[in-house]
Write a structure and sequence with these properties.
Blueprint (H helix, E strand, L loop, with lengths): L11 E4 L4 H10 L3 E4 L4 H14 L16 H14 L15 H13 L1
Parallel strand pairs: 1-2
Helix pairs in contact: 3-4
Length: 113
C-alpha cells in the first residue's frame, strides 16, 4: 500500500506523465491505478465507481468520522468503545480541528447505547 495508515483505501494517481516508467514508478509506490492527464472526467468517475463497488459494506460511518475504515480510525473507535463502557473521566486534547468534538460525540453516543 502507498500509505499503511489509510488502510485499504484505493489510491488513484493523476499525472501529467504517461510513460511506462511513470506507470511502473507509481505502481511500485503503491497506487492502485493512475490516470495520465489530460483525461475525461468520466474516466475518473468510472474508476472511482469500480473501487466503490468493491468496498466492503461494514455499516455506515460514525457521524463525522471521515476515513473510519482506516486502521488508526478503527483503533480510535475501539478505544472510545472501551472507555464508554467504563466509569472513567475522559479528557480529549489536541490542536483545533483534529476532531475532539467528533470523538466526544462518538464517546457520548457509545456511552448512551
Amino acid at each position: 500500500r502507498l500509505m499503511p495508515e489509510i488502510g485499504g483505501t484505493p489510491v488513484v494517481a493523476m499525472t501529467a506523465f504517461s510513460g511506462v516508467e511513470q506507470a511502473v514508478r507509481l505502481m511500485r509506490a503503491g497506487v492502485d491505478d493512475y490516470l495520465p492527464k489530460p483525461f475525461e472526467p468520466q474516466r475518473l468517475l468510472d474508476k472511482l465507481g469500480v473501487y466503490a463497488s468493491r468496498a466492503p459494506r461494514t455499516g455506515s460511518a460514525p457521524e463525522g468520522m471521515a476515513g473510519w475504515r482506516s486502521a488508526p480510525m478503527r483503533a480510535l473507535d475501539d478505544a472510545l468503545a472501551r472507555v464508554a463502557s467504563s466509569q472513567a473521566t475522559v479528557l480529549l486534547r489536541g490542536e483545533s480541528g483534529v476532531g475532539k468534538g467528533v470523538a466526544a460525540r462518538r464517546l457520548h453516543g457509545l456511552a448512551q447505547a
